[in-house]
Amino acid sequence: MERLLESYLAVPPTATVRLAKPTSNLFRSRTAADGAGLDTSGLTNVIAVDPAARTADVAGMCTYEDLVAATLPHGLAPLVVPQLKTITLGGAVTGLGIESTSFRNGLPHESVLELDILTGAGELVTASPSEHADLYRAFPNSYGTLGYAVRLRIELEPVEPFVALTHLRFHALDDLVAAMDDIVETGQLDGVPVDYLDGVVFSADESYLCVGMQTAASGPVSDYTGRQIFYRSIQHDDGATHDRLTIHDYLWRWDTDWFWCSKAFGAQHPLVRRLWPGRLRRSSTYWKLMKLERRFDLGDRLEKLRGRPPRERVIQDVEVPVERCVEFLDWFLANVPIEPIWLCPLRLRDDGGSGWPLYPLRPGQTYVNVGFWSTVPVGQAEGETNRQIERKVGELDGHKSLYSDSYYPPEEFDRLYGGDAYRAAKATYDPDSRLLDLYEKAVQRR
Q1: 333-349: string of b/e by CB count within 10 Å (b at 16+)?
Q2: Residue 444: CB partners within 8 Å, gap ≥ 6?
């Protein structure tokens, strides 16, 4: 904390305050920082796990990989564990996160009991539902523009050693979404309680729900950290198939191949996979490779050599009401040449009606997170496909996450992302605008 505060005081009053961090899970370009960032090197650890209270105190820059490693020996896990190992707890709370427990546990910030925040004013503030509640509510989706999480106390839940998986094949998207909605409403599949739920769409007539049930029963388990690839394992012709993973491997099932995006680096080719060291088959490796590609513009250079136009990045997660999910998927498959597509249902927990103003999902409403991460040929205007997606999501009363490129005009952005509540919190906790404004950061890429 002393190093963090000293680094804050060392930033000139005219300079923007930023974090100095070795990793990131943001997918938007940013202007280069004009000075040294805040020193967060001492804020990467798990401070304490309380098995009796089922809570953990965690430094803001601690990764979920390290957090899970500390909680699983106690038979506990965070209520929501985002898919990638290097996502930090502070990042998931200020930037939102989601996973296959979100249909019953909501989003990561909802399990935060209290958190210490270094505000833009350079003050250390403890925020909770009863203390600095305005900051507690406005912090999620503020992306470090109100302050930085230094310490968080979160709820944990009991977990069993294994997860039994059922992969359900669907030939029509209507059937898949109806089955998903029924599981969310009842919490069961064929009378058995469901602990985890997500899905994958390969095409309009090939889609799957991946339904997980915790179990203590021992037995053989699959391993997708080697040559086998998880998302390919769920594909089959009809009906249901079954699988088992350790709880550890289930939580990180998507990390080994960055969902399916490792294919872009050749990591799924059998020969390349045999030679690629297992310790480097992880999302952080692919992120570094992507950063190099963007730095030297390798993708567009290759496209030019092949006589093809440059490509637009379409790396997005959106939330649409479950009633409009099929409509969005039909539109997307007809207009955006990207597959597979990830589906993850979510429903906010009952928070007493106070809400989260910067990402105002409706309590009691089931949403489906639709994730798609690839590139398409550039259009006539900058970000043409991304803009089309933003318009469609808006038509369907949905929301788009802000971790990647956004193109909203100021008025629409203000309406969608809690402009009044954000400005009130900004005036209180960053009155001199030492931190970037949310629109500047999310849309103008500063």
Answers
A1: beebebbbbbbbbbbbe
A2: none
> Is residue 351's pLDDT more than 70?
no
β-partners of residue 316 are 372
Q: Which of 238-242, 288-292, 308-312 reaches the highest mean pLDDT?
A: 238-242
- In 216-352, at which residue ranges do the beta strands (DSSP E only) sit? 240-246, 311-321, 341-346
Q: How far apart are the first and last CA of the chain?
A: 26
Residue 215, strand partner residues = 162
With 70 as the cut, is the pLDDT of residue 54 above it? yes
The 3-state DSSP composition of the chain as helix, strand, coil percent (nearest 5) reads: 35, 25, 40
Name residue 56's amino acid. Answer: A
Helix (H) or strand (E) holding 386: helix 384-395
Cβ-Cβ contacts under 8 Å for 307 (sequence gap 6 or more): none
Evaluate whether 247 touches 160 at the Cβ level (below 8 Å).
yes
Under 8 Å between Cβ of 369 and 102: yes
CA distance 34 to 370: 36
Predicted pLDDT of residue 24: 61
For the chain, domains (ranges, CATH) are 2-159+420-442 (3.30.465.10), 162-253 (no CATH)
Q: Return d(Cα 339, Cα 203) in angstroms, integer.
A: 7
Identify the H or E element spanning 193: strand 192-193
Residue 74: count other Cβ atoms within 10 Å of its Cβ.
16
Which residue has 């998927």 as its token pair? 329
pTM: 0.94
- Largest alpha-carbon pair distance within the chain? 63
d(CA 262, CA 250): 18
Q: Are 176 and 205 in contact (CB under 8 A)?
A: no
